Amino acid sequence: MKKRFVSLILTCLLALQLVGCGPAAEPGPVESGEGPAPAQVPVTMLYSIELSNFEALVEATYPDIDLQIELNAKATIDGESERRLRTGHGADIITTTMPTGDVRSYAMDLSAQEFASAYQAGISQNLLIGGKTLFLPLPGQYSGYIYNATLAAQAGVTEPPATTGDLMDMLDTAAAQGLGQGSDGVMFALESNDMTNVSTYFVGTQIPDFLGQSEGVVWRERLTKREDTFLGGMARCLDLSAAMAEKGYLNPVRLSGNRGNETPVQDRMLDGTMLLTYGTVQFLDTLNAHGGQYEFAMVPFLSEGDNHPWTIATPSSFLGLNATLADPGKEDVLDAAQRVLALLSTPEGQAAFIRDLGASQSYLAEEVPAPGEIPPGLADCISEGYVYDVRFPAKLLLYFGRSMVSALNGETTMEEALAGVDRYFLEGDADIEYDQTLIGVVAGDMIYEDYNVRREETGIGNLVADALREMAQVDLAFVNGGAIRGSLYEGNVFGSDLDVVCPYGNPMVVLEAKGSVVREMLANGLTRLIQESGIPGGRFLNVSGLCYSYRAPTEDTPAELLDITMPDGSPFDESRTYTIAVTSYMCGADGYLDNNGDGYTMLNVYSDTAPLAEDVKLVRETDKTFGDALQIYFQTHNGEAIFAEPEGRIKVVTGDD
Question: What is the pLDDT of residue 540?
Fold first, then answer.
């Protein structure tokens, strides 16, 4: 226990009757004096930070409960929770940032619990899934525009922006004087490029002049009834972002949600090379705590004219109960976990969580004062009721954000993007649903960069090759480097992430091939490592089931295949027949003209414009792609955090070796 909290908490709580505790969850009195300590029931949960205040409150209120919080990285909290739930090892208290995601299938119905009614009606209604309450919102943060007030004052802007026009004028004025701008010209970025945050920002820009007005309220109600469309209501949500992008103040490519492509917002705000960001009150406090020569200020979402500004509030995450607690023999844990959530649903529980999270907003119906100071502009919004809760389902919000980023980058028109959102909202779409689905967790970065998969062994290349080999159940698997186009980063992995890694639809085939053919394949993979464009050719082979070495090419000499061995170091048998997995593309499905098939004519079983392969036999065709292989691999290994790294499968010998 953390003794420094106990005496104060006991004094405050011994006489309290907790709000919402039914008979099964009612705490007994805490007895003073000597005697044996009560037997403790462990209750487990995952979280991304220590919850010392809330743990102390639980221990002081319920001496018979041992709340065990396992720390887990914020980036993996959803994936890790779901991964364990899938395998029957989930925590008693479920943590998620996506309450309408697949994790809901593991959560217990809390509708009959009195504590579930302690929350604000708006957020409670938004969280209903099939008419049931499965999750409770944790305290969250208010968000708005954070700007470097010191640099703004140096540029002559001494008053906080009051309209979007003022915001743009501040950027223009500072840019004209070379203030708050990096060498890339960027002056504005989001604190986090998490797609939920990006989506929330785009929604937020529409609140003062639409969503917060009567016509926006009517639109939202009609949308809920499938009587209106996103195209009919959100057509202007990119206006401000597009204006910033046109002037170079915003780099829209950086909004893709790709964690390897993020702008270092905190560093740039602190060193004065960025003037403006969208972030939380907590981020504002962080900047001011480390700002040194700079002071930072905050304003809410602004109107284009005279409408009142608004702020957005978003829960930090959501808690539910593992449905397996209803199993026979778990009555004690279920009762203890219910009491923990009941305590969370009181002002005292919320206040403890707020202190732990550095949060500024509770979702209890009863007021819970937050410590710290709310910036004046946001404080006015809060006191006057101009606080907006985003009420779109999680997957719909993610797809909306991705669609808007695509439109902002010119990959599609705004009308086409919103029409796509409407189709998904009104009709559903299996492909889009897959894109938004949490597939699993990776334990570390597996990076595609500088065409590395086209000349050397990489973690991402090994992962794709292993996935193909496992799916096909073959001796050897080969993945041409040109088929790999993206990275996987430590943390949660969604279907759309796998589509980025392997975007092509070429189906996989299984062949029987002699070892001598495999040698020809590997040699062919080395034939375009140096090209006039400077980009290595995509025929280089990433492998699973064997190892090989080659001498790197120079301007005067081509690459040379040196040695092939099995993974255990034993010799590779060129006279043996192996089962191998490759794509139909390599086997001549598209022919071999104009570099189709990457020159793998020794595998030709399809094209009639080149000689059919010798010592090769087509065993079976499939409709599975490399992307499918990755998806199946994550499903098969859903009890693991996935990771692959170079392990000596491919050795590059240079002239100095």
Answer: 97
Q: How many residues does the chain have?
A: 657
The total of structural domains in the chain comes to: 3
DSSP-assigned beta bridge partners for residue 41: 65
Closest CA to 143 of 263, 275, 314: 314
Are 346 and 249 members of one domain? no
Q: Are residues 587 and 624 in the same domain?
A: yes
Secondary structure (DSSP) of 335-354: HHHHHHHHHHTSHHHHHHHH
Per DSSP, which regions of 242-344 are E strands?
Answer: 276-280, 296-299, 311-315, 318-321
Pairing of β 276-280 and β 188-190: parallel
Comparing CA positions, the residue from 36, 41, 17, 20 lying closest to residue 28 is: 17
Per-residue model confidence (pLDDT) at position 487? 93
Closest CA to 237 of 196, 210, 202: 202
* C-alpha count within 13 angstroms, C-beta hemisphere, residue 6: 8
- Percent of the chain at pLDDT above 70? 93
Task: Please check the confidence at residue 297 and state whether its pLDDT lies above 90.
Answer: yes
What is the structure's pLDDT at 360? 84
Distance CA 503, CA 175 (A): 39
pTM given for the model: 0.81
Domain boundary among 324, 357, 390: 357
Q: Any idea what DSSP says for residue 482?
A: G
Is the pLDDT assigned to residue 30 strictly greater than 60? no
Q: Is the pLDDT of residue 9 over 50?
A: no
Angstrom distance (rounded) from CA 133 to CA 107? 10
